[in-house]
Amino acid sequence: MRRRALSSARFVAIVAAALLALIGAGCGSSATVADESASPSPAASGSATPAAGASPAAGGSPVANVVQAAPVQHVQVGDISMGYRVIGPLATASAADSAAAGAAPPLLLIMGSSGTMDMWSPDFVAALAQDRQVIVFDNRGIGETDDPGSRAYQFPRLAEDTAGLIKALGYDSLDVLGWSMGGEVAVDLAVRHPAIVSRLVSYAGDPGGRLTLPPTKAAMAVLMDTSGSPQKRGERLIELLFPAAYRSANPANAETFPIPKEQASPVAMGLQNQAIGEWSGVAGDLKDIACPALFVTGTEDVISPPANALMMAVSVPGSWLNRFAGAGHGLMYQDPKGLADAVLTFFKVTATAAAGGG
């Protein structure tokens, strides 16, 4: 297989590792909520809504972390025990009440490379979990999911793990949303197990393989710069998640990150990165994805350039494309409300269409 020089997801793995070091040095964890939002639209429209001017919530008060407040549970999936959390529904008394009211089945979120499930933006997850359950989990070898040791595996193993998790939790199919590498896993899952993915959302992902547009040259230069202390290098790497205009308007932008309580071993991260680098991708199979699909990107994403989302949206029949003007790879921290609104609008419209309402 052809090895990519550096995949966007591999790049995020290094950012995540630096982030953990930076947070350990004393960064805060309060989240910001943006005022601007974008509604998704069919791929042909190419619409965009400004996100660069996003500002903190009134008063800048911290928001409760609904992700980390949910208890960790485990379920056996093949050769590993997978750790997961269930959040919501937050607007109803219980999951039973939500089901009785006709709520949709849970939404499954797939984290990016080397990230743990407690790194999801709590504001983003809370917005998604108002009227349905949201399930987050740790990928193979990460956080609360078993580390298989030093055994190498191929990238599609992550999609197989996700399919196994869905089945182990008692579902035939679920809506699936993935961020960065998680977006790649979600697309791979939709190709390999079309019956399992009810609706697909790939946020800041790519199709893998030689057609993927890599990080920008400027981003590469920052990555290769090893000067300074680990904290300084971490600060430089984290800045790549947010555009300069947003960082200028929000100088405490690093505080939008939750403080992770879980860890990923260097061995597990290395195996994941090896699998990513060796993945040949699914660009040639995108045309076969039949479920409703939404591709989300920030126009200022230097880690997974927006051309990747456009390429996938053009290739998947009837898919939607949502481009957030002025947003970077860290969109769910930069504009959690806007991103959630886009995803929820996609789900609402496609559910109406499936029911014959338009």
Textual characterization of the structure:
The chain has helices at 8-24, 66-69, 95-100, 122-128, 156-168, 181-192, 217-224, 230-239, 244-249, 266-278, 307-315, 331-334, 336-354; strands at residues 41-42, 48-50, 73-77, 80-87, 107-110, 134-137, 174-179, 197-203, 293-298, 320-325. The chain is α/β, with parallel strands linked by helices and 358 residues long. It has a single domain (8-354), classed as Alpha/Beta hydrolase fold, catalytic domain (Rossmann fold). Strands 1, 2, 3, 4, 5, 6, 7, 8, 9 and 10 form a 10-stranded mixed sheet that branches. Strand 9, helix 11 and strand 10 form a beta-alpha-beta unit. The termini are far apart.
N- to C-terminal distance = 44 Å
Q: Which stretches are low in confidence, meaning pLDDT under 50 for 5 or more residues running?
A: 1-6, 20-62
CATH class: Alpha Beta
- Count of DSSP H/I helices: 13
Our estimate of the beta-strand percent is: 5-15%
Number of strands: 10
The major pleated sheet works out as: 10 strands, mixed
Instruction: Quickly count the domains.
Output: 1
Task: Look up the CATH topology.
Answer: Rossmann fold
Helix content: 25-40%
Along the chain, the helix and strand elements come as HEEHEEHEHEHEHEHHHHEHEHH
Rg from Cα: 19 Å
Going by CATH, the architecture would be 3-Layer(aba) Sandwich
Q: At the fourth CATH level, what is the homologous superfamily?
A: Alpha/Beta hydrolase fold, catalytic domain
Structural class: alpha/beta
Tell the overall outline. globular
pLDDT averaged over residues: 83
